[in-house]
Amino acid sequence: MKRSSNLLDAGAITLSSLCLLHCLALPLLAAALPLLGTWAEAEWVHALVVAIAAPVTGFALWRAHRQHRLPALAMASAAAGLGLLLGGALGWPSHASETPMTVAGSLLLAATHVWNAWRRHRH
Predict the structure, then answer these.
(1) Up-side HSE of residue 59: CA atoms within 13 Å toward CB?
(2) CA–CA distance, 82 with 19 (Å, rounded to integer)
């Protein structure tokens, strides 16, 4: 059971990192390559990332909470990160806030997963 939890946390951290990379690196590449610019701005990319992140995060947190009760701060951090990702993907409250919200959400989710992996390793 510990191995699968490690894989879930590692997968969630990887997905958060890919999301962060998408938000920070693709705009730079988009300036150089028009095709990547079109792809980076495609709304389906954001919807796809959130559609993958939400169930993986939810399952990882549910499983972690079931194995060793998670502190409220961990649950709040993950919920806030997921909320920021969703808000960024939907372009809410504005298109200009999409990247900062998505970056903050990715970092919050990754930090929560790292914290959970550290807690599990420590026990």
Answers:
(1) 14
(2) 12
